[in-house]
Amino acid sequence: xxxxxxxxxxxxxxxxVFSSAVYIWQRFFSLRGLPDNLPWAGAEKGALxxxxxxxxxxxxxxxxIIDGYEKYSKRDQPFILPNLAxxxxxxxxxxxxxxxxxxxxHVLSQHRVNFxxxxxxxxxxxxxxxxxxxxxxxIRRELTKDLDMYASDIVDEIEHSLALNxxxxxxxxxxxxxxxxxxxxxxxxxxRVLVGKTLCRNEEFLHSSSMFLKNMAVTAGLLNLxxxxxxxxASPFLMAYDYFHYRKxxxxxxxxxxxxxxxxxxxxxxxxxxxSQHNDYIQWALHDAYSHDxxxxxxxxxxxxxxxxxxxxxxxxxxxxxxxxxFDIAASPDALSIQSALRxxxxxxxxxxxxxxxxxxxxxxxxxxxxxxxxxxxxxGFISRGVMKSVVVPQGVTIPSxxxxxxxxxxGVTSYAVHHDESIYPNAMAYDPFxxxxxxxxxxxAEKTAEGEREREGTPEEALKAPGLITSxxxxxxxxxxxxxxxxxxxxxxxxxxxxxxxxxxYDIEPIASRPENPxxxxxxxxxxxxxxxxxxxxxxxxxxTTAASPVLNDDKAVLVPEVVEVxxxxxxxxxxxxxxxSGFGHGIVDDMLLAKIAFxxxxxxxxx
Length: 609
Ligand code: HEM
What we know:
This protein has helices at 2-29, 47-71, 97-102, 110-117, 120-123, 127-131, 134-143, 148-166, 178-195, 197-200, 203-225, 231-238, 240-260, 281-291, 300-331, 335-350, 360-365, 367-380, 415-419, 437-441, 445-448, 450-455, 460-464, 489-506, 557-573, 592-601; strands spanning 79-81, 89-91, 108-109, 173-177, 385-391, 397-398, 404-405, 410-414, 507-509, 520-521, 524-525, 532-537, 582-585, 588-591. It is α+β, with helices and mostly antiparallel strands. Among the domains are: 130-398 and 459-537, CATH 1.10.630.10; 551-601, no CATH class.
């Protein structure tokens, strides 16, 4: 007994040292069976150079992606993108995209990449949730079958949640934490569809659903950084908060499942609506569970766990998208005229419908709203990879350029580099909200620009349409592309267009002088989490925009710009670098907003060495 206790300490120390050594070797030096003739982004030849590039990937993945894309993808060569947290990935040139999309799932699996990246076997609460595609099936079969059905509920919930979060005092500017308020708004309106009005207005359920979905990616990120051997020990601690909220979600879902279960029996045909008085996720999950023979799927536990995880997939990505879009509009030099143009479109397309009776044919006419969201997704898609798959055949695969990739290799294309490629999207770094709708609004556009030419590929009918938010292409992969493109995008597009149209009609957004930055967490790109915006409720949804409160933020640049330029010149003369966006300055940061404030305050500038 005593001798056992004496051995425990050294055994633990040995395990820690051993797992750390394996961790360092694997993360920094191992080639992981990848062909050594493939170049590594950001690295010359040699293990040390690769290790340095791998270290850079932790905070400089964006630069490595662009570096590899410019050096290799554009010359039609595959390259290896180092990634310290999740392992290196083989990035194919776009000419190999067709091959990538054609590979069957038993050869290259997209699901496997997500499974590993999200540590789905732990974060998704149950091995079956992580493994089976019930979500995709249920989303395609039930949620998407008649999207018009939810429009009035969604609009009702938008009104309610915006009033709660942004207020209804007409003409009064209110400062709002954008991400947090959109977290609440999107959680409410998605849950209105997923679980109905009673639960979506239950504060405890709503809070736990929001906290679970907000934290899941963070837990996955921390698990990615954890050495493999230590993960089983660390995960109960890292997952404690997620389980705490899951249990609160389950508390509300269990009784509903138990109450409805007696109406079901094995072999029921889910297409027969006789037994379907409800239209929500719990009912869809029960339909699915009773259409095949797996009793565990029918349990309240599995249905609650699936719902919690679905909320993550469905809600977080929509919050990120609308947050980015609103910041993009507010930070545009033409913020006010963009709002006017969107308002004009929304008002003119809604004149025949009351606010509560939107149908998809109305939404389809909102091509500027659609384009404004799509353009923001192009710039800030929440994940830098577009299509990424894992080799799941034991013998490996040979890519079209001839290199052999072993089992377990991640291979695909990155959307970030493609979405920011000047030769595909002229002025690619700028937010151009009508980039896509312009095609449909100006028939001569296609003849005038290369962008128009490219987008107008396809049949003559297709050529006349602007590419819609839901259309994934080789050059727009914010929903991924191919067979595994997001199955929820039709619902997401509906919900986001309704929300943006509603915001534009009922609120003014005050312009801001510079766009807050989007943080990168490995290959996930978050929205600005803590930045704020000012909004005010409008008296008449169709009246012209009111001038923003602060003269600094007015879009009358003829007044604004000379003052800011003058302040910049003083700072530059003093030997300080002042950039268009942000630049280091002493202990703080000087950006255009601060410069503008200095200019308008007329404050003397004191420069200390
Ligand atoms: C603007 C909002 C959304 C964006 C940007 C988005 C984006 C994506 C992307 C990029 C993927 C592929 C991930 C990968 O393979 O690397 C994906 C998958 C998925 N999305 Fe979405 N999504 C959105 C909304 C939704 C909604 C509303 C739902 C559900 C109602 C949903 C459900 C799913 C599911 C279940 C998958 C996994 C599909 C599979 O494994 O085949 N998403 N989404």
